DNA sequence: ATAGGGTTAG
């Protein structure tokens, strides 16, 4: 009979099913039922059996065929609550979240009442979308249905409020829940942890164990550890690690990877890379996230070489970056490693895998190009980006500044505001250095005002940028004011303030501040010593500089890097101790690089020590005079010695190798607008007036005994021609313009991108005397204050 | 669990 039934299943299946049912032959009924599932079209038309459709629906969902499931669902004439629940549940992944909510709405329209299974799934969707509006509506429905106190429903509500950042409501639900399981406790903890509410989180954790007698599981710790990492709570983190080992939390592989990754991230963020590495090595399994976390840790601690090795190891193991977050990690590593080629490969990967549109990864990419000096590529990418946010704009602003195009940074900032994108602290921290570069005090003051209005004026990083800005705009007094008013300092604050004194030639003040720093228990770092030694160097405090160099290693345990040797050579050479500087270089434990030799070469040029200059230039030629500066110096030395053929030769090599000399340029800010000049510039609207003024001045000071020092002219010209080339150096033009534009009591403040030459230095001294004006010139190196024919510097450089 | 932009020195 069964065989006959099976043969005939398509026609009389419904009849037979009922027959089996009445004869209590459940087994046969079920077998027939399952055969029927495979048949198409659905044979039980006479019954219109929804149960059968439901089974098919579940089959499609289980196999992940969502579109087939949807198709089937739409054929059900009156889907019941179970059908809705099944499909909503299937849709509850973030990708299909919108469909799920749509279905939930349709369910209500069809007057199908949601039940205790519906609400948690629908709420999960709201959590994923952080859709508070929908979440609240569903909360009302749950209350209406009398289900809001159900354990699963209320836990889902709690989670929804947490994910929507409505912690207050979440806490209220938690407090009024009739019963709470570990999931609920964990959800609440995640909320506290996510909002960096350290004390709340810890109290909650203790209550969970004491009152509810619940023991932390993997997801408890996965919430807790990032909080400890952020707080730098290494000791508590270590306790958590011990707990993990005690309760064998790594037994389940998935838990092991999650907890292990969180642990190693905690160690790395607390600066304990050895332990981070040990956790990593002991993990039974690792994934993309684990590797990203470790690489980020090394990058964070500035251990670039090891970060690079890890990066290569990961790729060699066949692992690749896929998720936007880990691509962002990898790109950040590339930016810090200066590995543009790897960055470009990741760019290609992004474009191929469709992660391209991800804002986070896109912003990292933008910043990577900017940091690598490929500003044009950064700009191009910025324009390609489908959506941009304030991070994208900030990255571009800082990209322009880092690549010496500060004026354009202001344009981007303007455009950003025109597009109604709100600048935040990081944007302002990117923008303020643009004012520092340009020495544009008015712009800087505006930015300061803007920062105050935005309520950001007491943020440490903002204040640091302001200190630097005022120092570089010639107002070291305002720098100190900002410094004194800060609520708290970090190492950058101290370093910036010390360096500020340095460029103003205030070595004594720099030293005093350094001692203050020590007294207040701030440990100096490598940068502090670069600042302090170079401030000694600018103030001619050779003995003090040497003293701090020795203290650095012996007392503070900081191993000198190439930068420190560079500073020392500069200190000695500037002070005129050329031979000592030469010996110092030869006694260095590191092989001196081009920059170190360059510092000595610059001193040879100024002190006109041609013999040593020749020896040093030979060294530089062997090393390859990287960058433009040393080519210029080298050729200047030859020029000064009257060996113009060799000077020209150096220039030719420079040109062939593609190093362009950046033209000397000076600028001055008058009433908030910048006026820039290059040597011999006649493009300014008031050009003829400016040159008339300048010629008058020069005529006057020649009567007082000024003689042009033509050794500062680089080309092989006749004396008269040389004089002309000198006369029209850009700083002289800018000063003449300043005299014309500013009333007599105002200080003239000119900024130059290169160093001021010796001849200009002399001329400016005379001008300050004849015109009775205070003149400040900021060049590539430091400040020169001119008054009554004197300069604050001992010598011109 | 990893997660985007920013401040200092040369």
TrEMBL record:
Alphabetized InterPro entries for the sequence: DYW_dom, E_motif, PPR_At4g14850-like_plant, PPR_rpt
DYW domain: residues covered: 705-797
Keyword Cytoplasm: no
GO molecular function, one term: RNA binding
GO biological process, one term: RNA modification
PPR repeat residue intervals: 80-114, 287-321, 358-388, 389-423, 459-489, 490-524
Keyword terms, alphabetized: Repeat
PANTHER family: DYW DOMAIN-CONTAINING PROTEIN, PENTATRICOPEPTIDE REPEAT-CONTAINING PROTEIN
Listed NCBIfam families: PPR (TIGR00756)
Name of the protein in question: DYW domain-containing protein
